[in-house]
Design goal:
This protein is an all-alpha fold and about 100 residues long. The protein has helices at about 20-50, 55-70, 80-90, 95-105.
Amino acid sequence: MDLHMLRYQSYKFELRPTGEQLRWMRRIAGCCRFVFNLALATQKDRVETGLAELDFARLSAQLLAWRRQPEGIWLADVPIGYLQQALRNLGDRTAFGAATETISR
């Protein structure tokens, strides 16, 4: 008998959010998408003008500025951790590369 056999197990489950929870999830997803696209446009503009891309810390500082502006005050309704994760996703070289390739087509 082989004592080193691996056993893989998985679970299948379904989320059933209430209407309010579903609206909250959609709001968070929309804000993250907005922040990702805004940061992507910022990075793209910097690259086109010959400037270096902003790192995560500078993008996070920019995010705080966006949240304080009257046009972006609605971003303050969403916890900042979700929005920072959108910036981290942009900082992933494969994500940024894929996004810029899509835009350039």
